[in-house]
Recover the amino acids of this structure.
């Protein structure tokens, strides 16, 4: 189903996959038909090797993209994992990666230099292929696609793990295709008019779904390595300008950074961009709005803004605004402090998905106007089959996301995570609100603040703020932070902890691990 649809889209398309070579800085065009030929070569190699799932590790090259479809042409499940981050010990990374692959049933891995030998030499027993040599563009024989055995997932997707132990969601071919098709229809992707541009990692559900949506639509797609964006975030704007991209996507921090340092931007044209998806982490209305305001002078239509909601358990997308909606927000007034907090409206469900708000023990009496605040529950055609090694997800059953939110006429609003809700003196606080206020303090790194509460049995109950800080006046910054949080959030922090830049733990996709921070702080305070 999925492999057939992608094959048809690739072979029928007259558009290209355009890939950035990080070393040379040059873009290379590859017709989608060529990408499909490469995928057939990879599938043929897979069928000559052991059965089991397929692993991918490395930067996004044309061969890497082809390997995704190659796995599905061979009827195999696919898992994509990140390469080593800066500062990692290579042999430890290789061992941990091989163990993770083996733990989810991967038997063959495709990778690139410099990861190849690391993965080959760790003694794991995995069959490791050089994707650059296997995924070549010449093919003399007709490939006979393998049917996917019943029950075989298309994707073994790691969950974000921001609130607990990471797990692996099993996504069927039907679920993946339904999600990609639903997003394609919702955004109204037109292969004759639209150009996608992305630097999102393909091991993340948002990056993979962006790519697959473009493939299924047969649209021209510009793909850059995440590391190239990380080295210089402003290059993203240059890529959008050069490609004349109409669709892009990124997590909130990327928009915030570019908005904050917009004075460094020059000579770009964003006039073609019609849909800029903001997802993968909570949307900061002020930061996103600043980006839109600053980029307007480069031709960006503010109505291109598209704050959205999704999770790995639903393949990716759950809600998104219709194109042209722009940034809409809902305001909540704190009756204690009269402070106003803004939450982005994340649009309505894509085709095939449903959601509802269900009361929880934390929110039974919580309301915002006529709207009831509760847990976001979802179901639909994009849902996972279940977590690997756990009971199957019952089709049609409501899935508890762990997110708190409410519904407006314009769509879903998400306030935070249930497990991360902070209760102080009977008041419920959303960490994102405290973090937004704390980030205003001079020297505190934007996007590097975590607000947590102590456990209920702690001798010193209250709010703790941990932030990465760089500046000469730590005492003054601490006093300013306490005053701001007390004034705007109505709670005096029991403790403020300043850390060196880069100290806060994050997931592989960059999300802060709030619960891990809380556990670490409690261990220190014990």
């Amino acid at each position: 189903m999925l492999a057939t649809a992608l094959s048809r889209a690739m072979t029928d398309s007259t558009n290209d996959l355009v890939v950035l070579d990080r070393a040379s800085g040059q873009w290379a065009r590859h017709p989608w038909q060529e990408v499909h030929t490469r995928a057939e070569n990879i599938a043929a190699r897979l069928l000559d090797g052991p059965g089991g799932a397929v692993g991918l590790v490395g930067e996004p090259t044309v061969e890497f993209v082809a390997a995704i479809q190659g796995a599905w042409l061979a009827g195999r499940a696919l898992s994509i994992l990140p390469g080593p981050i800066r500062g990692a010990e290579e042999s430890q990374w290789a061992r941990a990666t091989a163990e993770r692959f083996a733990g989810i049933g991967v038997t063959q891995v495709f990778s690139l230099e410099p990861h190849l030998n690391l993965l080959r030499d760790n003694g794991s027993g995995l069959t490791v292929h050089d994707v650059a040599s296997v995924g070549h563009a010449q093919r003399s024989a007709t490939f006979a696609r393998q049917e996917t055995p019943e029950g075989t997932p298309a994707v073994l997707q790691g969950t974000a793990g921001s609130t607990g132990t990471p797990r692996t969601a099993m996504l069927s071919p039907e679920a993946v295709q339904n999600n990609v098709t639903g997003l394609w229809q919702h955004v109204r992707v037109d292969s004759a008019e639209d150009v996608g541009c992305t630097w999102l990692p393909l091991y993340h559900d948002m990056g993979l779904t962006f790519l697959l949506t473009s493939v299924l639509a047969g649209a021209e797609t510009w793909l850059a390595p995440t590391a190239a964006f990380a080295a210089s975030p402003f290059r993203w704007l240059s890529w959008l300008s050069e490609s004349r991209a109409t669709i892009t996507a990124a997590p909130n921090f990327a928009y915030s950074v570019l908005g904050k340092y917009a004075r460094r931007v020059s000579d770009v044209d964003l006039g073609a961009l019609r849909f800029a998806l903001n997802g993968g982490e909570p949307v900061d209305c002020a930061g996103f709005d600043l980006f839109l305001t600053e980029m307007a002078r480069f031709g960006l239509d503010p109505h291109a803004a598209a704050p959205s909601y999704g999770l790995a358990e639903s393949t990716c997308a759950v809600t998104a605004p219709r194109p042209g909606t722009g940034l809409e927000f809902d305001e909540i007034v704190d009756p204690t402090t009269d402070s106003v907090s803004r939450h982005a409206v994340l649009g309505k469900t894509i085709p095939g998905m449903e959601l509802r708000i269900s009361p929880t023990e934390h929110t039974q009496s919580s309301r915002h106007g006529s709207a009831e605040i509760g847990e976001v529950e979802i179901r639909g055609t994009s849902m996972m089959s279940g977590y690997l090694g756990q009971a199957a997800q019952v089709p049609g059953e409501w899935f508890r996301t762990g997110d708190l939110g409410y519904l407006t006429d314009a769509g879903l609003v998400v306030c935070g995570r249930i497990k991360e809700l902070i209760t102080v003196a009977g008041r419920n606080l959303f960490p994102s609100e405290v973090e937004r206020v704390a980030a205003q303090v001079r020297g505190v790194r934007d996007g590097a603040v975590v607000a947590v509460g102590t456990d209920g049995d702690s001798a010193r109950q209250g709010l703790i703020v941990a932030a990465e800080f760089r500046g000469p006046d730590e005492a003054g910054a601490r006093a300013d932070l306490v005053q701001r949080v007390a004034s705007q959030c109505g709670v005096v922090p029991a403790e403020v902890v300043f850390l060196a830049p880069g100290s806060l733990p994050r997931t592989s996709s960059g999300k802060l691990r709030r619960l891990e921070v809380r556990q670490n702080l409690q261990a220190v305070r014990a």
About this structure: The mean pLDDT is 91. Residues 307-417 form a domain with the Luciferase; domain 3 fold (CATH 2.30.38.10).
